[in-house]
Amino acid sequence: MSHDPPKRLSNPPTVDALRDIGLFGALSDDVLEYLVQALPVVLVGPGDAVFREGDQAREMFVVLDGECEVLKRGKRGVEARVALLGPGDWFGEMSILDVQPRSATVVALAPSRLLRIGAEGLDQLYRRDLKAYSLIVLNIARELSRRLRVADGLIADIMANVLDEYVSSSRRR
């Protein structure tokens, strides 16, 4: 896997392509046209790391085409897949919101086109169109809430399984 972030630039997406992505939900065509012109698209190849857990950054990415996996390192240092991302999905938004190091590694599994949204690009949108900026932040918050609900469900299932195993082993003694 490559340790460098993607470098090759690609052609911008269309307004129609952005309109179909949840992150850009409810944005006007004028704002979508602005984003098409303002945000760079990068190409990554299979096995290329988009970024690594622990990296400092202030940018997020939207998958336009391709497939990426999100890997999280456990306490023993082993990476496990925690998500598979395809067209329309986005990742890296936590670095824009909380200014903390990357919480996971993202690697391309197939040739992928990614729309790069840096903190500076969001700041420019904030200054240009506060409503559009607010809609994007709200869409990020909705996705983070959805992910938290999924994680809570997984934690509850794991805890229930551990408790069931503990009770079962206690009864056998």
Description:
- With 173 residues, the chain is α+β, with helices and mostly antiparallel strands.
- The protein has one domain: Jelly Rolls (Sandwich), CATH 2.60.120.10.
- It has 5 helices and 9 strands, in the order E-H-H-E-E-E-E-E-E-H-E-E-H-H.
- The protein has helices at residues 15-19, 29-38, 93-98, 119-128, 130-172; strands at 8-10, 41-44, 49-51, 59-65, 68-73, 79-85, 90-91, 105-108, 112-118.
- The strands form 2 sheets. The protein has a 5-stranded antiparallel β-sheet with strand order 1-2-9-4-7.
- Helix 4 (119-128) crosses helix 5 (130-172).
- The longest helix is centred in the last third of the chain and has 43 residues, at 130-172.
- The protein is elongated, with a radius of gyration of 19 Å.
- The mean pLDDT is 92.
